[in-house]
Amino acid sequence: MEDLKPTSANSSPLTPLGFLERAATVYGDCPSVIYGDTAYTWTQTHRRCLRVASSISSLGIKTGNVVSVLSPNIPAMYELHFAVPMSGAILNNINTRLDSRTVSVLLRHSESKLVFVDYELRSLILEAISLFPPNTPSPRLVLIAGDSGAPSRAAPLDDFLCTYEDLVDRGDEGFEWVSPSNEWVPMTLNYTSGTTSSPKGVVHSHRGVFIIAVDSLIDWGVPKQPVYLWTLPMFHANGWSYPYGMAAVGGTNICVRKFDAQIIYSMIKRYRVTHMCGAPVVLNMLTNVPSGTEKLEYPVHILTAGAPPPAPVLFRTESLGFVVSHGYGLTETAGLVVSCAWKRKWNLLPATERARLKSRQGVRTVGLTRMDVVNPDSGLSVKRDGTSLGEVVLRGGCVMLGYLKDQSGTAKCMKDGWFYTGDVGVMHPDGYLEIKDRSKDVIISGGENLSSVEVESVLYTNPAVNEAAVVARPDEFWGETPCAFVSLKSEVRPKPTEKEIIEYCRKKLPKYMVPKTVVFTDELPKTSTGKIQKFVLRQMAKGLGSSRPSRM
Fold first, then answer.
1. Domain 40-205 has CATH 3.40.390.30
2. How far, in Å, CA of 277 to CA of 256, rounded?
3. 471 close to 518: Cβ distance less than 8 angstroms
4. What does the record list as coiled-coil region(s) (predicted)?
5. What is the widest separation between alpha-carbon atoms in the chain?
6. Distance CA 382, CA 275 (A)
7. What's the CATH number of domain 259-438, 3.30.450.50, 3.40.50.920, 3.30.450.40, 3.40.50.12780?
8. What distance in Å separates the CA atoms of residue 239 and residue 251, rounded to the nearest whole number?
9. Tell me, what's the pLDDT at 307?
10. Torsions phi, psi for 318 (to 5 deg)
């Protein structure tokens, strides 16, 4: 068989962009995207994406250029997941919760050439660009102004090149979209957090996104033509790749600009929603509204990831008729690659035991080649006893190409044939993974990862602060929130209050990164070498109990 080799007939590049063309053929007259009074079919969505891709190319955007999007979950946001890479450009979705300073850094780091901006975020993008150093090229801007409350298309655009619908109108629906020359061509760029000192831009290939999109459908058991409600921000790891997955199965995408539990329940009933995703905070919100006290008319599948949902929240959510699945993934894997594969016999267990089992991250998905927990020094697997700690490592086709402009960072986590996640976990005797800690003290708040180091750096700029350390405090609403332990300089008079420290941080950080609790102490616990013992602080924060729910 040595004479049998790959040919162009059997080795065309894998890309999820072809899902859209197939959806238009198979599900052409079926609903694709619904948003308020706006509704499109798959034929219309396909044509609109081709038109926008054509217009992007006509603006001089070349293959490999970065095109950014700053938008909530609206039709344009969904379409740009296809239109941008169809033009040959690399899609960069930006977290809408970031502040202008951080957005400015990310735009410069990515060298973005074009930015699509929702009308509610105009001031944010303009302020971000105003922070560019002199003589630094800035991207051109396109305004997404499709809502009833948005400015009319005839209104002055000022700093914007045109509107999104202008690009739809002027584009060519016969445009031959740019197929990748090979499946390793970069397709998406996503930043892992709001870190500004050293942005970590995760680059994924067409091949990687194709694999994770198909894998996610298989693992969750998504049938053909589901009704998917977008409660998960699409900017979050490209909606865990479900924009592409929904095209693959001809699903109906129900878009919402903002999350409101009352509205979510009304949409579930109106559109007979079958599937939705979100951080554990979404579960908590759904179980804390009056309308949520009545059981759903039919089961709704909800997939959650991040900090494990607390057992009481999980129990309340399932008692309402939601079927909860739990998984684990990173921006670096483009979606969930570990899931708590459920066994039917577990349904006979008491509720508390079911919640404990479901809170585990689980086993590798079928699309992931291998998963293990290893000693980071020796690289050897730890014992599968549920107590031996090690670092979670992964191997598979959906693992990122690497970090943009960061060879050392890429090499540090991609070694010996593994991707080292930086997460600490244990392996149970039954082969199920359970995450125990985040090695870099990352705090997962409302599904967003935030760096404790960055919050600490802001605290240290306060002239009254002597030392500071930030850890996670349990929160029934957000999962976790930042808790700052602070020692003050002895000579400072008067001493700042907790409220004043929080307000100081609020002026310098995005809202979700601001500490919700500040604990003053004479001295932070340290090792003999002077290193702050964060594990001690985490126990102290845990001892404070769950912080009072508050919206960020």
1. no
2. 13
3. no
4. none
5. 83
6. 36
7. 3.40.50.12780
8. 15
9. 64
10. -70, -30
